[in-house]
Specification:
mainly alpha, 14 helices, globular
């Protein structure tokens, strides 16, 4: 049994099926609370990054000291805004689409190893599971665009489907390179391997290519600039969620920031040592249970470093055209991804031989 679940069960002083089920529920509830707090912090961080890069004065002053109160104020505003459903919309699909979009990325959290044993479920096909479950987001986006009975929403949904499906190919291909090095799909094995052999990014020169391809593809998967075509305000009003308001609208924004966290966690775990320190300065994996929080802190720092780069690029690069986005994925990223996988395979055979 995973340490995280056992910890909750033992803390409650109970055993058996129902207490264990309650422990799972406690984990999920804690995760939802973390996601909510993280999203508000990420929005604050986004505003501050934009302010510094583009010299915007508003985020520097508005919202209390350094704008810290702006995110809670926005959340409170969305909570009390009127929930509007357009005439002619498919009300059932319109209502459930935000939940489908959010659940697709939220489910990826259960397989992320935050520290030694601090993981809800250690899935044997953890890498494959996260890639597969994240694809559910496309289903929710198409539901939202079609059910809104708006051509702008439908155009945004079609763009999202084409973009995400296209960039899943180079993204999955790039992840094959670290999998070849570690020899496992299990995310916890990546931390064990990197604690013994060093970070995967330094395993061979092709890892840098794989990391760059996965990072670019993850930007497209998260709909981040310069790949924010599904939400192109200048063309599609607000994209696939144009007709949404209130809390249902906030679920789409929450999904974007949660998706950023998940792909950054994958990047940190598969390429950047996970919860291990550089050069294994401290054997975090073998520390007593109370000190596992050190591993959590190490991983979170790496995750936010990747998130910062994502935000940096958003406020630096202009939006690409649709044809440029498709060409980049199919003509450049996918062939280079295959090159990185082939090079890694040859390197591994040569080094082992």
């Amino acid at each position: 049994m995973d340490i995280l679940i056992t910890f909750f069960a033992e803390t409650l002083g109970m055993s058996g099926v129902w207490p264990l089920s309650f422990a799972y529920a406690t984990c999920i509830g804690s995760l939802l609370g973390f996601v909510t707090v993280y999203a508000m912090f990420a929005i604050w961080m986004e505003r501050k990054v934009a302010a510094h890069i583009q010299q915007r004065l508003g985020p520097m002053e508005v919202g209390g000291w350094h704008g810290w109160a702006q995110s809670p104020a926005d959340a409170l505003k969305l909570l009390f805004k009127e929930d509007i459903i357009p005439d002619g919309a498919n009300k059932w699909l319109f209502w459930i689409a935000p939940a489908v979009v959010f659940c697709g990325v939220f489910a990826g959290f259960i397989a992320i190893p935050f520290a030694a044993g601090v993981q809800i479920v250690d899935i044997n096909l953890g890498v494959f599971f996260i890639i597969a479950i994240a694809s559910i987001e496309v289903v929710g986006v198409i539901m939202a665009g079609w059910a809104s009975n708006s051509k702008y929403s439908l155009f945004g949904a079609v763009r999202e489907a084409a973009q995400v499906v296209s960039y899943e190919l180079p993204s999955a291909t790039a992840l094959l390179a670290p999998i070849l090095v570690v020899g496992s799909f299990k995310l916890s094995d990546f931390n064990t391997y990197q604690a013994e052999h060093g970070w995967v990014i330094f395993a061979n020169p092709f890892m840098w290519i794989a990391l760059l391809i996965f990072f670019i593809a993850s930007l497209a998967g998260c709909k981040r600039a310069p790949f924010d075509l599904p939400e192109a305000e200048s063309e599609l009003v607000s994209g696939f969620h144009t007709e949404y308001s209130g809390m249902r609208f906030s679920f789409f924004g929450l999904e974007e920031y949660v998706s950023m966290f998940v792909v950054s966690a994958i990047t940190a775990t598969l390429f950047l040592g996970g919860y291990t320190l550089p050069f294994n300065l401290l054997d975090v994996g073998n520390l007593p249970a109370p000190f596992h929080l050190i591993g959590v802190a190490v991983l979170v720092v790496k995750i936010f470093a990747v998130i910062f780069v994502q935000m940096w690029l958003r406020w630096t690069l202009p939006r690409m055209r649709v044809d440029q986005v498709m060409s980049l994925g199919y003509k450049y990223l996918l062939p280079w991804g295959l090159f990185a996988v082939a090079g890694t395979a040859i390197w591994q055979v040569w080094m082992e031989g």
